[in-house]
Amino acid sequence: MTSEGKRSMHRIRGQLGTRLAVAAAVALSALAMSAPSSPSRSTPSRPGVRSSVPSVAALRRAPVAAQLTALERAGLVGSERTVAHFADAPGMPTCSPPPVPAATYPPGNSYGIPFLAAITNGQVLAGYDEWTANHLTWRAQGTTYDLDPWEAKIYDITGWVTGLLELPSLTATIAPQDIVFCDSNGNPDCLSADWPAGQCIHIYSQYGPSPGSPTPPPALGNEHPEGTACAGYSTPTFACLPFIVTLTPSGDTSLSVSGVEPDGGLDLHVTTSAITTVSEVPPAPSPTATCSDAPITVSLSTVAPASLPATAPVAPNPPNTDERTLQTAPTPLTGPLASGTSTVGGNDFSIPAFVPDPSGSPCSPAVAELLNTYAGGFDASFKDQTEGLYYVNGGTDPTAAEPGWVQFSATTTVVTLGLPVGPPAGFTLGSP
Q: H or E segment at 69?
């Protein structure tokens, strides 16, 4: 079947609500990691917050007591105070960070420096459409539309990561409980009029034109204005869908410093795994359907990949811009060590399929199908399409989207680095 034929079939078969739910949820699956999110179309980006701690002037001639007083005022002594200071700073994730571990040191341990990093601007792109990639500018009924081949995204992914940076290896192994995503723990309050700002993961999808609709239909998503519930909310260009998305870390996350840039910035590599859960919460008395995928392992880096995965979509025809590459460029860790920022990204991972429960509950076949249908974009070839499950690869390890059809990016900001500054706890200072 030609690409155009598959495109027409998928568009006719899919519903608008389906498209968004799927692409968003699936993209989310790809997101299963502990990296941050890139700015959304409808929300301002949240730049990494720089440290507001004042610099400490040289105090070589001052007595020890004065030096310690100055350090305390600068917030460099007392890790609890420093964590609270940064966690409450503007622009930081709004949920509570996990407890920061205590430093370790010989004998008996390696040197481990506690750190706390904020995840902001997390974003997953999915639903890549090869037809749209060749029609980035579309004119219909006297109006010109600028189309985006990445037709779905999950955004507003924020959270916290803590752990110990080991010396001299500059590596860290982070336990699942040391990663927190601000997703309101799946609370349906995210669909209410007084939804908790900063603690809801949002999804968004914009259909392109199709044989049955020459003009792009209204976009779909779960973000809605403060003071207005999702249920029934719509505008001429947008309709709200009642979807809740949560991320659950699975297994340990590894962090390593893989190199140094010419300007001194640190190259980071992160491997992490998470489970994505998507719930459709329709108005009562309709039941809630909840589907979770298998843990997905993702490799993220501050260095852009040299090439696309072998399974990536085909390149668009010239002169169309090739937008298959990472849409948010990775950047190395730069800035003061205790407030440096970096951007991580990756596209060499696949998304596990959502598998319905045999009983049909809590994960119904209908919702599972919606979540899988467009994970790989309209031009994906689904091997068991006749069964209605839309897996790219079936069998015991079904896949909804292959590497290159989704991508993830996020910003991380080191908000505190527990360097051993100041006297040990309980130390009493005498007269200078």
A: helix 64-73
Residue pair 392/422 in contact by the 8 Å Cβ criterion = no
Residue 199's Cα: distance from chain center in Å?
A: 13
Annotated domain spans of the chain: 3-51+59-417
Integer Cα distance of 262 and 334 in angstroms: 12
Cα–Cα distance measured from residue 420 to residue 417, given in angstroms and rounded to the nearest whole number: 9
Give the predicted TM-score (pTM) of the model.
0.78
Spatial CB neighbours of 43, under 8 Å, sequence gap ≥ 6: 155, 156, 202, 223
Strand 219-221 relative to strand 238-240: parallel, antiparallel, unpaired? parallel
Q: What percent of the chain is modeled with pLDDT above 90?
A: 46
Report yes or no: 429 and 64 within 8 Å, Cβ to Cβ.
yes
Cα 203 to Cα 21: distance, rounded to the nearest angstrom? 8
Residue 430 binned pLDDT confidence (cut-offs 50, 70, 90):
low
pLDDT for 398: 81
Q: What are the tokens at 378? A: 């309209």
Q: Note the pLDDT of residue 213.
A: 81
Rounded to an integer, the average pLDDT of 144-158 is 91
- CA–CA distances in Å: residue 258 to residues 226, 255, 269, 332: 43, 9, 6, 10
Helical pair 16-31 and 365-373, crossing angle rounded to 10 deg: 70
C-alpha–C-alpha distance, residues 53 and 89, integer Å? 11
* Exposure string over 152-180, b if 16+ CB within 10 A, otherwise e: bbbbbbbbbbbbbbbeeeeebebeeebbb
Condensed to tens digits (0 to 9), the pLDDT of residues 39-97 reads: 333 333 322 222 333 333 333 333 444 433 433 343 333 445 567 777 777 889 999 99
Q: What number is the average pLDDT over the span 218-230?
A: 93
Q: Is the pLDDT of residue 322 over 80?
A: yes
Q: How far apart are CA 255 and CA 312, in angstroms?
A: 26
Residue length of the chain = 432
Query: Tokens 């009029």 belong to which residue?
Result: 193
